[in-house]
Structures are given as structure tokens and as C-alpha cells.
Amino acid sequence: MQTREFDLCTATYGTARRHPYDIVLLPWGATEPHNLHLPYLTDCILSHDIAVDAARRAFEEHGVRCMVMPPVTMGSQNPGQRDLCFCIHSRYDTQRAILTDIVASLHHQGFRRLVIVNGHGGNNFKNMLRDLSTTYPDFFIACGEWFKMAPAADYFDQPGDHADEIETSVMMHYHPELVSLNEAGPGEGHGFKIDALRQGKVWMPRNWSYASPADTGIGNPSLSTAEKGRRFAAAVAAGYAGFLCQFAHVEQQQELYE
Ligand SMILES: [Zn+2]
Asked: Mind listing the pLDDT tens digit for each residue in 146-200?
């Protein structure tokens, strides 16, 4: 199975116009340091690769055809992260403008189902989707973090938060040549001192200068393996494929409800 017909990074117009596509997948990442051993574009690369795997499975197992858009590199950053060289903070209005333009073009072309495959925990699309649902009530747009599609605790010894065993293992599965595990720092994170903040009852952005002062990572990547990454990525892609199969057949709002 050629993945080119599911992946707009390598697809041709000749291929794309030949098939009707049921769903568009939009990987969304960030441009930020990932400890000392993973690429800046980790969140883009992983969300893209997971989306392509999901699209391939959705077609092979369910006959549902998806196109994966090129990943968006503009991510929302915490204070402290933007101080790090080449880390780019994208404002809410910038992200909303990017998404609005993508949605407007796709809607104009007749597409009616879009799924954002988010690879960066700092991104939040919910209010954007609420706004877009009023402008495009016939466009079904959903979002979620790929790493929440399967229970990480079942696959990893020390799942963490950022550049951790999860991201490192999945990158080792897809692109072992991009991982320098021997250069990784311990990814020691510092939580909030105030109980309500630490427990998530009250939220404010973490300042990365204090949350992870040594190597930008939160989560120990030292136990990462490509095999753990392979198993987790397969579970995530299977989860997406099952969802996409159901989502592809929704034509009316009321069909989404029990
Ligand atoms: Zn990441």
C-alpha cells in the first residue's frame, strides 16, 4: 500500500483528484526544544506519522479514505520556553487564523469532515472549533491529542509529559536516525508548590525556566525503546482508524448522538 495517496507531503494532484476523500486529517505540532536528544519538530513529525498510519489503516481495514495535510509547525508555548533559541510561540489569534484559512479552503472544495491530530500539549483548539461550528455548521471538525488515543501507562515504564519515554520511543520507531538518546538529559520536571495548582484544580501556564530548568524535558527518556514505540503507535493508529470509520459515516448532526 502506497502511503503517498494519504499524505499530502508527498501526494501529487494526479493522485489526489482521482479519489473521493472522506476525511481530512490535520497534524498540528510546534517548533520547540525536546530535551537534548529529539528534534525541534518532534510534535509535527510524530503527529504526521501517526496520522498517516491511521489513514492507511482506516483505508485497509474500513475502506475509509483520508488525506493527511502537512503538519502545522506553529505551536502555543509556555513562558520560559520562548526564551530558548529558535523556539517559536504562536499566539492564539495566529493559530486561529491558520485554522480558519485551512477550514475555509477545504469547505470551499466540498470537504465536510476534519480531524486535528494534535501533537503538542500546549495547543488548545476547543474554542476555535466552537467558533468555526457557527460559521460552518455543516463542517464536522474534531480534535484530540494523539498520545491520549491509547493508555500510555500500559505501554511505558515512566510515561512523562514532554520529550519523555513516550515521544522518544515513538520517534525511535519511526525515525531512529533522529534520536540521540545518549545526549538526553534526565528530564527532571518541577511541579507547582501550591496544592490546587499541582492537582490541576486551578490552572495557569507553567514557566519552563522553573518547570524544567536543565534540559527542557519533563519525563525520563532513558528507558525508551523502538519496540515500545512500535506497540504504542500501533494501538494509537488502530484507535484512530476505528474512530475514522465511524466519523466517516456521519452525515447529519443528530447522527452523532445516542
Ligand atoms: Zn513534544
From this structure: 999 999 999 999 999 999 999 999 999 999 999 999 999 999 999 999 999 999 9
- Ion ligand 1 contact residues with beta carbon within 5 A: 42-43
One-letter identity of residue 56: R
Separation between Cα atoms, residue 110 and residue 126, nearest integer Å: 23
Cα separation, 207 vs 223, in Å, equals 26
- Say how many CA atoms lie within 13 Å of 63 toward its Cβ: 1
Ligand 1 centroid, distance to 153 Cα (angstroms): 17
Q: Look at residues 44, 97, 51 and name the one whose alpha carbon lies nearest to residue 236.
A: 51
Nearest CA-CA partner of 35 in 222, 229, 193, 230: 222
Distance CA 126, CA 112 (A): 18
What's the pTM value of the predicted model, to 2 decimals? 0.97
**Span from the CA of 120 to the centroid of ligand 1 (angstroms):** 6
In whole angstroms, give the CA distance from residue 199 to residue 190. Answer: 13
Please state the φ and ψ torsions of residue 26, each to the nearest 5 degrees. -120, 100
The grid coordinates of residue 240 equal: 484512530
Closest CA to 119 of 40, 55, 204, 30: 30
